Amino acid sequence: MKIAVLIKQVPGAESPLQISSDQKWVDESAVAYVMNESDNYALEEALQIKEAHGEGEVVAVSLGPERVQKTIREALAKGADRAIHIRMDTVEAIDPLVTAGHFKNPLKEENFKTLPDILDKYYGKKTRYVGAVTSFIYSLPALSLYGFGMLGEVILGWEPIMGMVVLGGIALVYTLTGGFWAVAFTDSIQFVLMCVVLAMAFPFAMNLIGGFDEMIEVLEPSYFDTMGDMSIWLIIIYASTGLSILVEPTFYQRIFAAKSYKNVRNALVIGIFIWGSYDWIITILAMAAKVAVIQGTLPFDVAPDAALLTVMVAALPAGALGLFMAGVLSTEMSTLDSYCLVAGGNVAYDIYKPAFKPDATDQELIKTTRHGILLSWVLGFAMAISFDQMLGLWVFMASILISSVLAPILLGMYVPNFRKPLAGFLSAGLGLVSTVILNIYIMTNGVFDLEEETYIIDWFGIDFMLEFVMYITVPISLIGFFVGVLFDKGDHHE
User: Fold this and answer.
1) Residue 27 in contact with residue 20, Cβ under 8 Å?
2) In the chain, what are the helix, strand and coil shares in percent, each to the nearest 5?
3) Is the pLDDT reported for residue 493 higher than 70?
4) For 180-234, how does the pLDDT look when each residue is reduced to its tens digit (9 = 90+)?
5) CA pair distance 64, 338, nearest whole angstrom
6) Which of 99, 135, 217, 466 is the most buried (most CB within 10 A)?
7) Using CA atoms, how far apart are residues 366 and 349, in angstroms rounded to an integer?
8) In degrees, to the nearest 5, what angle opens at C-alpha 79 toward C-alphas 76 and 85?
9) What is the pTM of this model?
10) What are the boundaries of each domain within the chain?
11) What does the alpha-carbon distance between residue 187 and residue 167 come to, in Å, rounded to a whole number?
12) Fold of 117-384
């Protein structure tokens, strides 16, 4: 909860008010300025509201010349947590409408910036910290680094670790030096290149295998069946990972940075169309890779994770292959820089500032963000080399997010009366802890099945796959939430 109190500096009751020599304003040399009495009452009321709720932040905001600093310091001395000084030396020359315009942007900036901001508003600081840890883990660039490893191996002939270090390091450098707007700008360019490359690669891949008719002839009928030959329980899990988009930290970051609701709406409509087309093309290209393996165009023992890249190397001419490589690099880099930036923001703005240094300067926060970006890259690297399969890594990342924050975010958004601090904390905390523990336990004590390409453990006579963890962790999160609603007797959190 944030309360903004607008503070006006006015002449004291005993101050002489004489016209200045230029006849334009008051002679301020003999005027003693003080806080407006009504604004003083407003500040006291804001502090009482904060005290009644047991948490929150009171922000004093004042517009005026340098002398306004005295009144701002007075507001801080009375108990305000922070203050904003909007510098304006010619306050006598502006009307109330213009004044309101000057207040608009600073106050707008006090709104949400990250996913944990929402959890803080709904459930308080404790849940915010759990959400920050969740967002940080989810935003580790492990998937991108894994992809860099495959790219280096298939196209450049490097060891996977070399690809991770060199290619991932390039993206790390410009993320550290550029910040959010550099990431947003490069992502836009990289996304366009990525789409162009995929559109170009499609006909070459189809020509390599002999077209759609050959694909239908070679592949088993299950490839064209809605359910395929995969178990319904695994299909549900893979489909459920799509729920992560509802609480995707990078999406929230971009939505909160948008200039207007209209921009967000248009971006979502366009994004649905583009990403839908993108996913269909990727799916068909992957099926083409399977056909190429059956035909003998690709080696039989090609790794499933590398099949798509390998078929592109075989299908594309030299010039087009270079462009394709640039497109794939763009895809991975645009993903890595976005997630590293979110992770760095989680460290600086969601943990360091509220928990350790509320009065941190912008420079301190930028420095801490960069430290967080570097930390996320290192941990993402460690996670990438710990998994034997990219799909398993993705399911783990998605399960972290879904099991921890999906329930408290959606229930808090649509059922305001359920915004109990204990509910949010238990739901997010139990979801996060159970997901991490179960994944570590299965990967440590289970066996990696080469046919299923995942870890499997025998539980009570059932082959329990690593991907099935969400069948346990999501109910745990929901149970934790409703237990919190039941036993938290306080008013819902504003």
Assistant:
1) yes
2) 70, 10, 20
3) no
4) 555 556 666 666 777 777 777 788 888 888 888 889 888 888 888 776 777 888 8
5) 38
6) 135
7) 10
8) 30
9) 0.67
10) 2-110, 117-384
11) 16
12) Sodium/glucose cotransporter (1.20.1730)
Q: Are strands 462-465 and 454-459 parallel, antiparallel or unpaired?
A: antiparallel
Q: What is the mean pLDDT of the chain?
A: 80
Residue 187: its pLDDT value, please? 62
The helix or strand, by DSSP H or E, that contains position 206, with its residue range, turns out to be helix 180-209
Using the CB atoms, write b or e for 87-119: b if 16+ within 10 Å.
ebeeeeeeeeeebeeebeeebeeeeeebbbbbb
Contacts of 391 (CB under 8 A, 6+ apart): 305, 453, 454
- Residue holding tokens 């070679």? 218
Which two three-digit tokens encode residue 386? Answer: 């710990």
- Beta strands 57-64; 82-87: pairing state: parallel
Sign of the CA dihedral with 161 first, then 163, 168, and 173 last: positive
CA distances from 485 to 127, 140, 332, 403, 415 (A): 14, 31, 41, 18, 11
Q: Quote the DSSP letter at residue 24.
A: S
Of the candidates 422, 392, 395, the one whose C-alpha atom is nearest the C-alpha of residue 408 is 422
What architecture is the 2-110 domain classified under in CATH? 3-Layer(aba) Sandwich (3.40)
Question: Alpha-carbon distance 453 to 111, whole Å?
Answer: 44
Burial class (CB in 10 A: 0-12, 13-18, 19+), 191: middle
Output the CA torsion 424→428→430→435 (10° steps).
Answer: 160
Q: What value does the mean pLDDT take over residues 93-109?
A: 55
The Cα–Cα gap between 88 and 94 comes to: 10
At 11, the amino acid letter reads P
End-to-end CA distance of the chain: 7
Pairing of strands 82-87, 454-459: unpaired
Question: How do strand 454-459 and strand 447-449 relate by DSSP bridges?
Answer: antiparallel
Q: Are 80 and 59 in contact (CB under 8 A)?
A: yes
Per-residue burial over 251-270, b = 16 or more CB atoms within 10 Å of its CB, e = otherwise: bbbbeeeeeeeeebeeeeee
Q: What is the pLDDT of residue 433?
A: 95
Per-residue pLDDT, averaged over 56-84, amounts to 84
The token duo for 249 is 């930290």
Contact 202, 283 (CB under 8 A): no
| Residue partners of 406: CB distance under 8 A and separation at least 6 | 243, 244, 246, 247, 474, 477
Which two structure tokens, joined as six digits, stand for 457?
A: 């453990």
